[in-house]
């Protein structure tokens, strides 16, 4: 064996080693550049962010759903008339207080407000913890004194709705009529514990992902009119609670209600129909009240949210888990408070970190796996593992990592790009003498 052969046991010549090092260096520079570009893409381009949000919806859909709290019941108005569901035989069995209500339900919706007054009175007498109406009773009606007495006698356990309307730079409060809920000296009752805001927070793409719990009228006016106009009009701070926040107050969970500025992402219980649903007609049917609801014992200590069904009243919204009625979304908002069902989305730092780590893993795969086929397979396996991790974190820890598409593209781009550079994977070149 010659001296030259002894000093170069790998069989590589000096030119080959130099070329190998140059290819490695070139690949490393390109890889670092691609990682930097990926970070910029992930953080600065809205189109990429929007797609990442849609993928995050998939993780929430695939992850463990929230469990419906057993206290919650959806009392659904599932028909515009219960004429077919309340036969003459049931009318003959009705109590004196229920008969006018049952006759009203045989007509067309909207019904006489005596229906809602008697319903709340009946459920509260059965031991319900709260009766929450997903309705705004804005106009005055002749039967309001009865409804008002039921609300005040059971305050704050009977809650009705109000709305915040914003249009053309104007903000308007649609409040319950003063004939139902008493107003203060300024004519406002939205801050009354018996009133909850019915607004639902939708993201820019029209999908409901975040809860709405506390609002301040002055802040809303400032956003709509500007600070100078708010000061000129003398609009004062007025904190308002949503229907969900009012319900949480009834359960001693006031400390769990998010602050005014917070719009937390919530974990939904699943698609429509997840919460126990009871038909209004069944509650007012004497026979079913006795047999199915055990003379009202079924409702003891329950939080009953009364609202229209999406199939009848076309009152629905899109969520990450499918289309839901507005009442089911309010139930989901409540459920998130009762059972700590909030999701913590990853911030910018975590998203950048995920992109960088994915880039490093893509480089390692490219540098140390010889076969191009094995590189691609390993890249896909790594992406699958990343997806499984995202789903697991969302389901088990309530932590949603909002960076996936860019890391996947980066990993696979690096493994493909590697084919353009010629060097021996996994070897450290030895300088020749």
Characterization of the model:
This protein has 433 residues and is α/β, with parallel strands linked by helices. The chain has two domains: 20-61 and 344-420; 67-340, no CATH class. It is 46% helix and 14% strand. The chain is built from 17 helices and 14 strands. The protein has helices at 3-7, 14-44, 46-62, 88-93, 99-105, 114-125, 144-153, 217-225, 227-233, 243-250, 280-283, 286-291, 310-313, 326-338, 348-368, 372-397, 405-417; strands spanning 72-77, 130-133, 158-167, 170-174, 195-197, 214-216, 239-241, 265-266, 277-279, 303-308, 316-319, 322-325, 342-345, 399-400. Strands 1, 2, 3, 4, 5, 9 and 10 form a seven-stranded mixed beta sheet that branches. A three-stranded mixed beta sheet has the order 8-13-14. Strand 11 and strand 12 (322-325) form a beta hairpin. The protein is elongated and about 95 Å long. Mean pLDDT is 86; it is low at 1-7 and 428-433.
Features:
433 residues, alpha/beta, 2 domains, seven-stranded mixed sheet, three-stranded mixed sheet, 17 helices, 14% strand, elongated, disordered N terminus, disordered C terminus
The low-pLDDT segments are 1-7, 428-433
Number of strands: 14
Number of domains: 2
Distance between the termini: 15 Å
pLDDT averaged residue by residue: 86
Can you count the helices?
17
Question: Radius of gyration in whole Å, from Cα?
Answer: 31 Å
Write down the overall geometry: elongated
The helix content is: 40-55%
Class derived from helix and strand content: alpha/beta
Query: Main β-sheet: number of strands, strand sense, barrel status?
Result: 7 strands, mixed
β-sheet strand percentage = 5-15%
